[in-house]
Amino acid sequence: MIEVSHLVKKYGNHLAVDDLSFSMEEGKIYGFLGANGAGKSTTMNIMTGYLAATGGEVRIRGCDILKEPEKAKRAIGYLPEQPPLYMDMTVEEYLFFAAQLKQISKEKRKEEVLRVMEETDTAQVAQRLIQNLSKGYRQRVGLAQAILGNPPIVILDEPTVGLDPKQILEIRELIRSMKKEHVVLLSSHILSEVSAICDQILILSRGKLVAVDSPERLVDKLQLKHGASARLELWLLGDEDRAKEVLASMEEIHLLECQNREGGQCRVLLEANGKEDIRENLFYLLAQYKLPIMKLLTEERSLEEVFLELTGNEEGSAGKGMEQEAEREVTEDAGNL
Asked: Which tops the pLDDT comparison, 291 or 317?
């Protein structure tokens, strides 16, 4: 559906996108992750034809976005971070206007507008001015605009930004339903959102692609890298001093915390010095000294840890300047779209 090959975008001396290559298959939701200035929005703007690349190629269903822009763009529905809405129009008027811009035939226009309003649950506000809608409904209208004409590819830039928790859950469910008929690419700063919605995650750092995989596999890889028992929490039946003395004999561990709790139990927090699983040895050692394990918890790694490890302490200040320059470039080129 989408093939991005060796994509490069420069703003003066700033390299916003650095030799980026990836592909996307139908029937999946893909998530773009990255700090501010990592190149997410720039890449999406190039993929949708809003920006020209400095180098590389983007093919949409086999069509080069630069050489065959009209044909490629017909396959894309796009919702930018700020939905392109006309506040003085009603929802229905706006969607008919958008359908006309997308060159949907007059015979099919009404049917198509009714379809997208039904799918996005905006039919009940069809006759209301967009300026009088809540932000959640405005976002739904933006999504309705994006899927007008049933494009096979839908690209969403921060689709839930600024929404309340209830609205976020509603939009997430709506996006999940889209993958039945569309390839969906979304950008978000909310890691839990990406983990909950996306089948595949692409992590960008300083314009480079540093990871592509499912959320579960990315977490599993991090867990494997740091060892299955990198950090453990134990509840032992016994005294704190006795537990410290016994655990000190194990060179493979570093004791972080040990203290008595109610009921004669002792809570112990420790981490492994290496990557080997120490749980079996730990069990036999404590059993030998009659310190039964009442509970053992293995620390679960998270997508947040994967993200931080892969992107480091990436700062977004340079990226902010690049994003502002990108906005100016889009504005200057708007007449050529």
From this structure: 291
